[in-house]
Amino acid sequence: MKLDYTLLDVFTTERLSGNPLAVVTKADGLHDDQMQRIAAEFNLSETVFIKRPQAERHTAAVRIFTPQVELPFAGHPTVGAAVVLGLESKMSAIRLEEPIGVITCVIERIDRRTGNARFALPHLPAPAGPPPDRLRVALALGLEPEDIGFAGHLPAVWSAGVVFYLVPVKSPSVLRRVRPDRRGWAEVFPLGHNSVYVYCETPDEDGNDYAARMFAPGMGLGEDPATGAAAAALIGQLAGNAPGGQTEYRLRQGLEMGRPSLITMQIRKDGDTLTHGGIGGSAVVVGQGSLDLYD
Q: Which of 79, 180, 268, 288 is least surrounded, with the fewest CB atoms within 10 Å of its CB?
């Protein structure tokens, strides 16, 4: 059995930056355990498998795996899969069947190897549980309690399909100092896959509004260069202070890893009610190949 795959860097237009992704096409013959083992073989933060859709009007069905678990939704695989399909088909809209639901991606072709995709969240973010106290959070991240929080932002737990602990810190310099202590991590952050998204404002940086870092040992990951599902959860946190109407924020991630990434977040409010959340970003193809699974 030979399976073709494409390697992309996502949430960037620059090769060898952003978040790497493997997209395995024509994966209908694979069982769940095979997809999980292939994802472990690639050992990237996520691998996406493209299958035939159940509905004819949809473009494809996708399954998303980290090296250890399957996810119902993730941002960088959604962007990457949509760009691959959009570049191949020259379509401007891609409808993906994901376990969380159908996601429509609007595609803009940048060149023959690069594209941009944006999509509305299939589920708006919602609170997902109680956060730990500030002292426990600070100790787990190698920080001081006074480093946690800014401008009314406090630790919280949100999910737009995947649960994340959202931890605001005072500045980019504090963000750089984060050094996770994995001892007792799952006890401090027990919900979901124990995933933590640390973020701050970036008022002195041109071109982006926030910066973030993501740590997910429960997904088989260390630090992740760019995490669309976490940015989707963050929309819920940011919406409380966002003005009415539509607002777009730009968030950088991965800089501390040498993999700079840029995620756009769209928020629309009707009065005080969040009515739309969206994620967008670019992706660039860096390689293609085939898997030889059996003689």
A: 288
Please report which confidence band the pLDDT of residue 295 belongs to, taking 50, 70 and 90 as the band edges: low
E strand intervals along 169-231: 196-201, 210-215, 223-224
pTM equals 0.96
Q: Which residue segment(s) compose the domain that 154 sits in?
A: 126-278
| CB 87 within 8 Å of CB 105 | no
Distances (CA, A) of 266 to 100, 115, 155, 203, 276: 20, 19, 22, 19, 8
Reported as a single tens digit per residue, the pLDDT across 74-116 is 999 999 999 999 999 999 999 999 999 999 999 999 999 999 9
**Shared domain check, 109 and 49:** yes
Residue 46 annotated among the catalytic residues of the structure:
yes
**Kind and range of the H or E run holding 231:** helix 228-239
Q: Are residue 263 and residue 138 in the same domain, yes or no?
A: yes
What CATH code is carried by the domain that includes residue 29?
Answer: 3.10.310.10
Structural domain count of the chain: 2
Distance CA 90, CA 115 (A): 11
Place of tokens 């096409």: 25
| 84 and 184 both lie in a single domain | no
Say which of 41, 46, 248, 256 is annotated catalytic: 46
Contact 269, 244 (CB under 8 A): yes
Q: Note whether 140 and 273 are same-domain residues.
A: yes
Phi, psi of 212 (to 5 degrees): -150, 160
Co-location of 263 and 148 in the same domain: yes
Q: How far apart are CA 199 and CA 58, in angstroms?
A: 35
In 3D space, the residue among 90, 77, 102, 97 whose CA is nearest the CA of residue 24 turns out to be 77
